[in-house]
Amino acid sequence: MSVVELRIDRPERRNALDTATVARLRAELAAAAADHEVRAVVVVGGGEQAFCAGQDVKELQALDRPGRLAAHAAGQSLMRELEEHPCLVVASIEGYCLGGGLELALACDARIAGVAATFGLPEVGRDLLPTWGGHHRLARVIGLGRAKELVLLGRRLDAGAAAAAGLVTDVVADGAARDRALAVAAEAIAGASRATLARAKALVTAGFAADPRTAALLDVLAEAGQA
User: Fold this and answer.
1) Residue ranges, the chain, pLDDT below 50
2) Could you tell me where the beta strands, DSSP code E, fall in 40-193?
3) Could you tell me the residue range of the domain that residue 83 belongs to?
């Protein structure tokens, strides 16, 4: 199978990420990475209300300090594993994409949104911080100024504004994001091997943060099959 789905399936909690869900998603990502027939992963939220409303704050508040630190570390690992996954990863976003949900979407390679989708990082206004990579990934995707609007001012973007800012790849009718994400993924992998996809993904991510000479060297090494 070339495309697999990774489903956040807690619609009763707007797909908030608790520790069990984070662990399951990480395990499913690892299984997809180990299966060399898989070339793309589409991340989907269960139900119609939300892609993901963030970390499960109720669970977090019930944890002791070591438990909270472990939950943060596991969340950061999930985001890194999405970003560094050898497959193309596409987020299918309907409804709320907030806090840790936006951080998860930012760790994906592309984002498809239903027209009623809403994006934001509300943590600072609640005396919290987006510590799963939201600070730096958001700034890389939409620029420092717009990122500060979301992080520090608590602004939210609708799907149209998110597309204009470069956060979203496509905006589709509500309920159609999953089908469009699957189609985008299938089209993207149609002519590319998994090795080429993985190498191109790594080059884009690493090259963005590198100086031009280092980025050029990475290109040469990748072409030679050594990167």
Assistant:
1) 227
2) 40-45, 50-52, 88-93, 96-98, 110-114, 118-120, 156-158, 170-172
3) 3-188
For residues 113 and 132, membership in a common domain is answered with yes
Spatial distance between the Cα atoms of 58 and 71, rounded to a whole number of angstroms: 13
Residues 17 and 115 both lie in one domain: yes
**Tokens representing residue 129 in the block:** 């911080």
The 10 Å CB-count burial string (b at 16+, else e) for 4-18 is bebbbebeebbbbbb
Give the model's pLDDT for residue 205. Answer: 85
Separation of alpha carbons 169 and 90, rounded Å: 10
Torsion of CA 95, 55, 119, 126, to 10 degrees: 120
Helix 19-34 vs helix 65-83: crossing angle, to nearest 10: 30
What was the pLDDT predicted at 1? 64
Let me know: does 90 contact 111? Beta carbons within 8 Å.
yes
pLDDT at residue number 216: 67
Query: Which pTM was predicted?
Result: 0.92
Query: Catalytic residue numbers?
Result: 103, 123
Where residue 164 sits, what CATH number does that domain have? 3.90.226.10
